[in-house]
Amino acid sequence: MKYESYIFDLDGTLLSTLTDLAASCNYALRSCGMPERTIDEVRRFVGNGVKKLMERAIPQGVDNPRFEECYAAFREHYMVHNLDTTAPYPGVLEMLGRLKGQGAKLAVVSNKFYAATQELVKHFFGDYVEVAIGERPDIRKKPAPDTVEEALRQLEASPDTAVYIGDSDVDIDTARNSHMPCISVLWGFRSKEFLLEHGATHLVSSPSEIV
What we know:
Elements: E1 5-8, E2 15-16, H1 18-31, H2 39-45, H3 50-57, H4 67-81, E3 87-88, H5 92-101, E4 105-113, H6 114-125, E5 131-135, H7 146-155, E6 162-166, H8 169-177, E7 182-185, H9 192-197, E8 203-204
Helix pairs in contact: 1-4, 3-4
């Protein structure tokens, strides 16, 4: 089916960000004298926003008396280093260009904090993506439908002709809560088996399959 609007997750869907996320996570943990995490651990921790990432990475989570200090260290480091190794997955730019050329409306919704979402989308996808929405205090984050609904509002688009694309169980739930079909990508942070266990119905192994 050809859709008029495409709503994309960011981390693990359009951008390979895991190395930079892990580097900032471990910088913050080191700065607070806490044990570092492996790449595979960070991969499992991402998907619900960076505060939840740090809650999972920090011993005792939000109950740790140094949680806010460590979380602040992560945010400060990541805003400086979020372009160190981050890049679009192979084929993503070509896919977005083809969709744009066909007249599709494109947006990104992410649980990443707002400033980083705006910076990364503008840097990598400014020629293609019209709307980018990150974590905001006035709107519920995914899997609530609020960010998707806000993206559709800004695009002046209908959910009836839109599709959501992501790489995680959070994205599957977000699409369901937004009453939209979901395309689950296999190059992101979750395995095919994991996605199927969490209700994925349409899987793609390369960006070209989205067009």
